[in-house]
Amino acid sequence: MTVRSSGSQPIQIEQDVVLARQTARKLAQECGMRLIDLTKLVTAVSELARNTMVYGGGGDMDWQILDENARTGLRLVFRDEGPGIPDIKLAMTDGWTSGSGLGLGLGLTGAKRLVEEFELETEPGKGTRITITRWT
Ligand SMILES: Nc1ncnc2c1ncn2[C@@H]1O[C@H](COP(=O)(O)OP(=O)(O)OP(=O)(O)O)[C@@H](O)[C@H]1O
Ligand SMILES: [Mg+2]
C-alpha cells in the first residue's frame, strides 16, 4: 500500500465542518469513487467532524489517498485532544448521547455503517482519534 497524497485541516468552528465535507468530496472524486460511496463518506465526515468540534473541543482531519493493487482508498482521521470517550461501548450504541437535547446519538454508529473501515481510539483526558477508510 502506498500513500499517493496526504494533508490535514483544522476542525474548530462550524465553517470547518463544511470545509471538511468539501475536502472529502473533492478527494473522493479524485479517487474515482462512485457517487453512492462518495455520498456515504461525506455523510460520515459530517458526523465525525461535528463530534470533533462539539465534544472534542476542536481538532483536525488528516487525509490520505491510498493506492493498493487495483484499488484506491480514502482514509480520514478525526483527532482531538478533548476529554475522550469514557465508555466506547455505550457511545457506539444507537440512540445514546451524552448531550442534553438535539443530538440523536446516531452519529458514531451511523458513520461506522457508512464506511468499510472504522477504528476508534480514545483515552480519557487525552483525546479521541477515529480513522475511517472507503475503497473504490
Ligand atoms: N470526539 C469525541 N470526544 C468525546 N466524546 C465524544 C466524541 N465523539 C463522540 N463522543 C461521545 O459519544 C456520544 C455519541 O456520539 P454520536 O455522534 O453517536 O451522538 P451525538 O453526537 O450525541 O448525537 P448525533 O451525532 O446523533 O447528533 C456523544 O454524545 C459523546 O458523548
Ligand atoms: Mg454526533
Question: How would you characterize the overall build of this protein?
Answer:
The protein is of the alpha+beta class and 136 residues long. The protein has a single domain, classed as Heat Shock Protein 90, CATH 3.30.565. The protein is built from 4 helices and 5 strands; from the N terminus they run βααββααββ. The chain has helices spanning 14-30, 35-54, 88-91, 107-114; strands at residues 2-11, 59-68, 71-80, 117-123, 127-135. Strands 1-2-3-5-4 form a 5-stranded antiparallel sheet, with helices on one face. A hairpin with a 2-residue loop joins strand 2 (59-68) and strand 3 (71-80). The longest helix has 20 residues, at 35-54. The model has no long low-confidence stretch (mean pLDDT 96). Bound molecules: adenosine-5'-triphosphate and magnesium ion. Magnesium ion binds next to helix 2.
Throw out a few tags for this protein.
136 residues; globular; 5 strands; Heat Shock Protein 90; binds magnesium ion; binds adenosine-5'-triphosphate; five-stranded antiparallel beta sheet
Radius of gyration: 14 Å
**Estimated helix fraction:** 25-40%
According to DSSP, the number of beta strands is: 5
Mean pLDDT: 96
- Placed side by side, the strands forming the largest sheet appear as 1-2-3-5-4
Label the structural class.
alpha+beta
Largest sheet: 5 strands, antiparallel
Distance between the termini: 14 Å
Overall 3D form: globular
Attached small molecules:
adenosine-5'-triphosphate, magnesium ion
Number of domains: 1
Text of the CATH class: Alpha Beta
The DSSP helix count reads 4
User: How large is the share of residues in beta strands?
Assistant: 25-35%
